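It would be a great kindness if you could assist me with a short task in structural biology. The full record is reproduced below for your convenience:
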Amino acid sequence: MALWSFRFLKQLKVLSAVNISLEKTDELNATVIIDLEKQDYSEKVEKELRRVQKNVAMRGFRPGKAPLDMVKRMYGKSILADEIQQTATDALNSYIQEQKLDILGYPIASTRVESDLDIENKEQFRFAFDLGMAPEFELQISDKDQLENFVITVTDKEVDEDIDYARKRYGKMEDVESAEGEDIVYCTLTELNEQGETMEGGVEGKSASLVPNLVQDEALKNTLLGIKKDAALTVNIFQLFNNNDSVISSTLGIAKEGVKDLSMDFRMVVTDVKRRTLAELNEEYFQEVFGPQDAPATIEEYRERIKSNLENYYRNEADLWIDHQIGHLLLEKHAFQLPDEFLKRWLVTTKPETYTAENIEEKYAEEKQALVRRLIIDKIAAKYSIEPTHGDIRDEARTYYLGLYRQYGLTMMPDDNFLDSTIDKRLEEREFVSQMADRVVYRKAYDQVKQLISLVDKPVTVEEYFQHVNEHKHAHAE
């Protein structure tokens, strides 16, 4: 989740008659104290009592005809409690807007100043709320800040590898006599008892498939290499699937909790060994990959098409990496403080299902980094008048769904009518609109940063690029 600033609350009517004061502990922490007198809430309580009187059914009286004093005796205290709480909340919200207080999270009951809510004996009440104040800071980025813009060179090696991958994907499956490392071995698995016989009530004749090279146990892998159809052997089921409980439960069709109760030994009977052959580079293959209207005419044209696609892919990768570097740069250049203890208490108070006294220190570290970045983005957006328009949000939704489809491996994108209909429905959801608006603001803010800093081109190979990325992620535990 994200920590949101209170600044986005709607404007409320200012309750100027209510006595409110602000006590600042320091620049990041404050307490709002609200002292309610009887005149601040009595009219609302009276109005609510009369509303209840009109609707309540009480023994001995027709509906709506119960005496007001009786209604007051039965419901007065609960109505009073509700009304003073609502009056204090409205006053607090109005005061924050009126005073233009830039706060983080939301106000919570104070631990510094004690509230006084004795509705049994008093007519004056005190509410005290602690606030976490947003820090004041200035943007610290300029053209003196340099980031590397990787210009990634695509060579014949990358083109060949991509073509081989595609040819395997579109290749045919054929039966082979014995298994090699990348072949698929189809088999049945039967659970055995201590005597090496079929276990009564156990897994029996379950169909499965595996690739020898994916088996981590070297001895078992060597046994599977060269195995032939109809071969039967006893295997350790946990070694066969690399002690992965999820894979074992899915393969055998049992609950994950039941994996620990399985026998170690299984009878494996090979039913087929198949190998995926490479598709031929011919007209039929080109049309299957690109479609009849867009298929390349020659192998040379096909290679150029693959190279162009890879160059676009790595250009996008380099752009994303610049964004990643900008995220680090913003945090490095703006090392301001937050009201940490308040925010931890706020998280535990408002989201007890996620944050507890036991995990708050660990979880807050992630939240703090996200909040600092958010405050910096808000500062950039405010300084450079970045506002997401409806068109921006719609375009971002389109980008979001196209990315989603590619992630799911769809090679044929949905037509525009289907995509527009999907987007129209989602834009009726306030949360989705807010999510897309945030993406727009972040993207535009990062684009603005790119205009402010210096980007230095650095030609690299694909291997050099990924080596740099992996070293960075290792250094930053990402």
Observations:
- The first strand starts at residue 19 and ends at 24.
